[in-house]
Amino acid sequence: MLLKVSTQPLVEYDDQSFEQLFKAHYKSLHAYALVILRDSDLAEEIVQGMFLKFWEKRALLNVKTSVKAYLYRCIYNDALNHLKHERIKLKHQQFTHQTMNSSHEPASSKVELSELQLKLSEALRTLPEQCRTIFQMSRFEELKYREIADQLGLSVKTVENQMGKALRILRVRLADFIVLLIIATLYFNNLIK
Hints:
It is a single chain. It is built from eight helices and no strands. The chain is an all-alpha fold. The chain has two domains: 15-83, RNA polymerase sigma factor, region 2, helix turn helix motif (Rna Polymerase Sigma Factor, Chain: A, Orthogonal Bundle), CATH 1.10.1740; 102-192, Winged helix-like DNA-binding domain superfamily/Winged helix DNA-binding domain (Arc Repressor Mutant, subunit A). The chain starts with 14 loop residues before the first helix and ends with a helix.
């Protein structure tokens, strides 16, 4: 089935047609996700999550290709986003472990880094929820503004405005630690290269 771009979706999914779509494509999409992720449970979670998003946003969808190709593209993107997020978490854990346990660093550096992490966490908690979510997706998950906008159902302009707001608030809250933050960032960037 080929869908064209329009202001209204050409196909409306009711419970029955969605169930048929799910049954027709679930196994092959799970197998595809399994090839990418190499974890059956995780592949199942990604496929089910994609179908949930598909159902929730069905009224807004304007599929430009076949529905099957669209579903495969969604699985591909969701699986890669998950892997990217896991790599970032691993790098962050390695960085934290290395900086907190390295014997060549003076104790004062460890205390400063620990204090910086505490201040950053406190500053992030003061951000409004949407602003904090967008900041974390951009900086910690390394998503582009368009990807954030698509995932949250916002405009790119809203994402840009929220990022600007987050950076202004964090700049004020972390003014005392800005030099230490720059040093830590440079150190972290050198560590992950």
